[in-house]
Amino acid sequence: MLKMEPEALLTKLIIRCLVYDNKKDIIDLLNRYPINWDRFKDLILYHEVTPFAYLVFEKIDASIPDNFNLFLKNNYHRNLINSQQLWNEFLRITTSFDQEGITLLPIKGIALLPDLYEGKPVRPMRDIDLLFKERDIQAVLRLFDEMGYKEESYGLKNEYWRQNHYHVMFYKTKGHDKIFVEAHYGLDYKREGAHILSELWPRIREVKLFNNNLIKFLSPEDTFFSLTLHNRRFGRALCFKSIYDIILLLVKYKDIFDWDYVLAQSKKYRLNTTAFFALAQAGLVYDLDIPVFVQKELHIPGCKRALINNFIQKNAFSPRLKKKQKKLLYLKSHFLLYDSMLEPIRYIINIPKEQFAQYYGLEPYDSKTEYFYKNRLIYIIFWGVGDFIKTLVGGSSLCKKQDNGISGGSVRQLKREESSRLNPRSQNEEKL
């Protein structure tokens, strides 16, 4: 009998198949257990791996409902078209900036298309993410205006975006669609008035692509940071799409990946836990070939490792959550992704009014919001911090257990679980 829902296990096996090209376990699961295709659909949409599920099912001989197969096919082609449109627009933007002598780097999804997804350019993307130096912000605003873009403030004051964020949003209408661009002048919020990871600029690389375009990219190590920081900021740390990005990155650059640089910057900018979290989740899917010293020098206490591993295993397959539950889950992950408990607490205490309003579904400049914001500590506690503390206390017993690291332990456990689930006979024999 399966201990994990077959839909959750199928989602895991889809990701593993993308890496290992092992279709046998998926075929065995589909032949032995009934699949709730609506539940499976929720999971692959939540993890943003729907087009990749189509690629896997295309290669196997399995009975899939016609309507579900049509959904996968349509989603695949929609992402294929979207990727091509965004890539063409990126080339147009970067050409304009090159002519002005302004360095503009693609980051996140748009940068990964030619680097990691060249053979399957269907990675789901909502916008074009770019990185520039903050000193060039006036030129950036002017160039986007000349290209027909408008600033997107989402009803908030531009002053708020400049003071409390590290990117500017642009959009323009093209036919019936809108193209969105996030132009970043940092990978994360400033620390003590300065951008983190300023060391990335001397490390950028120039690559000639298949169409002879010369494009500047972040180094593999700084790409790793850009992905993990993005997930932390948006509360998407559990999303398998981003974990698949990291797996592909580490596999492609395993021979030259500079772990010493990653460790040095993680220590300098207090990103050890963020890095560990990403590697721990990737370890559930892929047998990561990470040097032993990396896990040791991240200096994550055994108690926190256990809490992180438990959080991932418990919540990675829970997309059907109510709005309040999702907020609580985001809050829990927020506390688990920082090196110090003081950092997320300090952020909550000093949260800008606009972000406070957005998080709790309030009007940003309403008098009622102003009142709640002035008394935000009481308001935040009312909405769930108390529940989170109870969760931490209840989970403290995990600290007494020996945790698996990120260097294959989690993967070996997953393999044993999957083997017993897919082979009930061997499970019974083990008990005997």
Task: Explain how this protein is built.
The chain has 432 residues and is α+β, with helices and mostly antiparallel strands. It has helices at residues 6-20, 24-32, 37-46, 50-58, 66-99, 109-116, 137-146, 158-164, 220-234, 240-252, 259-268, 272-282, 292-297, 302-315, 323-336, 342-349, 353-359, 367-374, 376-394, 409-422, 424-431, and strands spanning 105-106, 128-131, 150-151, 167-174, 177-184, 205-208, 214-217. The strands form 2 sheets. A 5-stranded mixed β-sheet has the order 1-2-5-4-3. The protein has a two-stranded antiparallel ribbon with strand order 6-7. A hairpin with a 5-residue loop joins strand 6 and strand 7. Helix 10 crosses helix 12 (272-282). The longest helix has 34 residues, at 66-99.
Number of strands: 7
| Topology order in helix (H) and strand (E) letters | HHHHHEHEHEHEEEEHHHHHHHHHHHHH
Alpha plus pi helix count:
21
Task: Kindly report the average pLDDT value.
Answer: 83
Proportion of residues in helical segments: 55-70%
Q: What's the CATH first level?
A: Alpha Beta
Q: What does the largest sheet look like?
A: 5 strands, mixed
CATH fold-level topology: Beta Polymerase, domain 2
The chain-level structural class is alpha+beta
Query: What global shape is seen?
Result: globular
Q: What is the number of domains?
A: 1
Q: What is the percentage of strand-forming residues?
A: 5-15%
Radius of gyration: 22 Å
Poorly predicted runs: 407-432
Strand order of the largest sheet: 1-2-5-4-3
CATH architectural group: 2-Layer Sandwich
